[in-house]
Amino acid sequence: MDGRYRAAVAPLSDYLSEAGLNRARVEVEVEWLIALTDRSLFGTAPLDEAQKERLRALYRGFGADEIAWLAEKEAVTRHDVKAVEYLVRDRLAELGLDQIAELTHFACTSEDINSASYALTVQRAVTQVWLPRLRVVIDRLGAIAREHRDAPMLSRTHGQPATPTTMGKEFAVFVWRLERVERQIAASEFLAKFSGATGTWSAHLAAEPDTDWPALSREFIESLGIGFNVLTTQIESHDWQVELYDRIRHAGGILHNLATDVWTYISLGYFSQIPVAGATGSSTMPHKINPIRFENAEANLEISGGLLATLAQTLVTSRLQRDLTDSTTQRNIGVALGHSLLALDNLARGLTEISLAQRALDADLESNWEVLAEAIQTVVRAEIVAGRSQISDPYALLKDLTRGRRVGATELAEFVRGLDIGDAAKERLLALTPASYTGLASILVSEID
């Protein structure tokens, strides 16, 4: 994804790359140092603001030099978090803060640093990159829904002609579905633990029994802008990640449905594709404009959905107090969200490259007057109840007339005129056309507002 698709997914690399994870680890280590000295633990004095700013510059200015330093160190330590600890110690020496070096990574297990780092990076990737890109797609869907709220079209239930709707209402359905899931994702928790080797604060109490370490840990984690999980094993249980990835996968399923529906509308001729200057549709057929945006989105959502499902399935389990299956699994979070982001990018572009072909919609409606059979048999039923008709089985009557055959406007009008129903009901039915038989479709679009 760093090759052909880099432009679409690059914003995620600030958070969900190896460098992004290590920057977050440095941030957690530095902020823990500051939190400990702020409370004057073990005879330390609080750092002044200038010292704190120089320390924070370690992660705010994290770049190529730090990346190279960590790569070299990890080749020796064979442990990524330990390499980060050594980096912070090294920089403390440069800053003349050797006296607090032993507070680096104090009483922490690697998962304390990692759980906070993953919570930070995933939170930032989702809220600052993924959700805004989803919002672009939803907004474009909403614009299409409002523009075409009155554009009648033939529905196709089971792929067959069915009661008409409007194109706007059908797009509004996707807006409604996506906004619901968007709200759930926006309300997600991002949790970390900070309680030592097996979640018991044992080493903390051995070093300083008079400190309320759970309260201090909670305050520290919440100061980072994430939530605190107080009851854990060595690892944070990852349930928040399982919930989040399932919701993003759900959103991807809806978007996949959108991609296949728009592709089908294009295939039916309901949408024409707007040519992009310089683009080639086929290497041998010059006339072609292929719906590649929607096909690309469809495929990337399938890859993303598969990875997200694997993440959710794997991360929910850890043997006894700790195993390392989560470590390698979490390194694919960026890949999963990257494919999803690429799909969102393609959908956002594709929705600006289609134009409604109302003539095609009108022609389809005009060729399927038999869809009014539903209206006719329903009106007849109402007339029977009201005592204005003696028809015994209106459904069977219309089934005999229309099932498996085309019925034109003239034939249908003659049939209605011969019905045993009241004059007012006849007038209503004779005024109906497939294009006008759209119920509240246009009004329903207002629900997305």
UniProtKB/TrEMBL annotation:
It is an enzyme of class 4 (lyase). Its EC number is 4.3.2.2. Residues 318-438 form the Adenylosuccinate lyase PurB C-terminal domain. It comes from the Bacteria. Keywords: Lyase, Purine biosynthesis. Pathway: Purine metabolism; AMP biosynthesis via de novo pathway; AMP from IMP: step 2/2; Purine metabolism; IMP biosynthesis via de novo pathway; 5-amino-1-(5-phospho-D-ribosyl)imidazole-4-carboxamide from 5-amino-1-(5-phospho-D-ribosyl)imidazole-4-carboxylate: step 2/2. Residues 3-297 form the Fumarate lyase N-terminal domain. One of its GO terms (biological process) is IMP biosynthetic process. One of its GO terms (molecular function) is N6-(1,2-dicarboxyethyl)AMP AMP-lyase (fumarate-forming) activity. NCBIfam families: PRK09285.1. Catalyzes two reactions in de novo purine nucleotide biosynthesis. Catalyzes the breakdown of 5-aminoimidazole- (N-succinylocarboxamide) ribotide (SAICAR or 2-[5-amino-1-(5-phospho-beta-D-ribosyl)imidazole-4-carboxamido]succinate) to 5-aminoimidazole-4-carboxamide ribotide (AICAR or 5-amino-1-(5-phospho-beta-D-ribosyl)imidazole-4-carboxamide) and fumarate, and of adenylosuccinate (ADS or N(6)-(1,2-dicarboxyethyl)-AMP) to adenosine monophosphate (AMP) and fumarate. This is Adenylosuccinate lyase. It comes from Microbacterium schleiferi.
